[in-house]
Specification:
By secondary structure, the protein is of the alpha+beta class. The chain is 30% helix and 24% strand. A 7-stranded mixed sheet has the order 2-5-4-3-1-7-6, sandwiched between helices. α1 (13-22) packs parallel to α5. It is elongated.
């Protein structure tokens, strides 16, 4: 269940667009979020999640997205935070939020980059809506990316599609026309299991999460792995990125 308290902060829209591709956002704020860290601990103690609402740094009146605050690392004068389960918000503004301290709506012109707020109903609904996922939606259509941000997003998605296709072609050539899960002790083959329906199908996994990479770092085919859906899910269960060779235990 979403906690009754949520965290409000600001971020650039291109960071949201990139996070929608990876399913994970890592942000940094020049303020020690001590109260947020405390609230995260309290939420977990009650079996709840702590929502976070993200406004556009270029236009703080506009709310871009919400998600679940998974981790808060507080330093002396700064904070690194991790968000998962991102959901795009449309048509929502700062004034839809009420400050936890006063119970009043955020005033027009509010410029603070961090605050605790009451979790609004539309955020609770978004986080409870298990039938939709941000990865199934086209990000630029939802958050209205324009100009350079739109261009970067389009280039990124095109490059990812080419990389995936190239990795699958390489694996097909190396394995005599078969796509076999590369997780040791798995070897699942969609075509063997499903026949013609599964021919040429497999997931492609980034061995190193995109969120941990330098923005200018080049992805090579050896940085990718062909995996089955089950192994891919287990690799990332709990927002982790587990090594392939340690995923399935050897029961021999």
């Amino acid at each position: 269940m979403p906690s009754e308290i949520c965290v409000y902060t600001i971020i650039h829209s291109d960071s949201i667009a990139a996070a929608l591709q990876t399913g994970r956002l890592v942000g940094r704020e020049r303020k020690a979020w001590k109260s947020a860290a405390l609230r995260l601990g309290e939420a977990r103690a009650h079996g709840d999640v702590l929502p976070i609402v993200l406004a556009d740094a270029s236009n703080t009146e506009r709310l871009l997205a919400c998600g679940v605050l998974e981790q808060v690392d507080v330093q002396e004068t700064s904070t690194t935070y991790t968000v998962t389960q991102l959901r795009v918000l449309r048509g929502r503004t700062q004034q839809d939020l009420r400050l936890w301290s006063t119970g009043k709506a955020i005033a027009v012109g509010f410029i603070r980059p961090y605050a605790l707020c009451h979790t609004p109903p539309f955020v609770k609904r978004a986080l409870r809506d298990a039938g939709r996922t941000e990865l199934a939606l086209v990000p630029e259509e939802l958050i209205g990316l324009e100009g350079e941000a739109y261009h970067r997003m389009s280039v990124h998605r095109s490059r990812e599609a080419r990389l995936r296709a190239a990795k699958l072609r390489s694996a097909l050539e190396a394995n005599g026309g078969r796509l076999v899960c590369e997780v040791p002790r798995c070897g699942f083959d969609f075509e063997r299991a499903y026949g013609e329906l599964g021919r040429g199908y497999a997931h492609v996994h980034h061995k190193r999460p995109l969120s941990e990479r330098d923005g200018d770092e080049v992805t090579r085919l050896e940085d990718l792995a062909v995996v089955c859906a089950n192994c891919h899910a287990m690799i990332h269960l709990g927002n982790q990125c587990r090594p392939l060779d340690a995923l399935i235990r050897d029961h021999q």
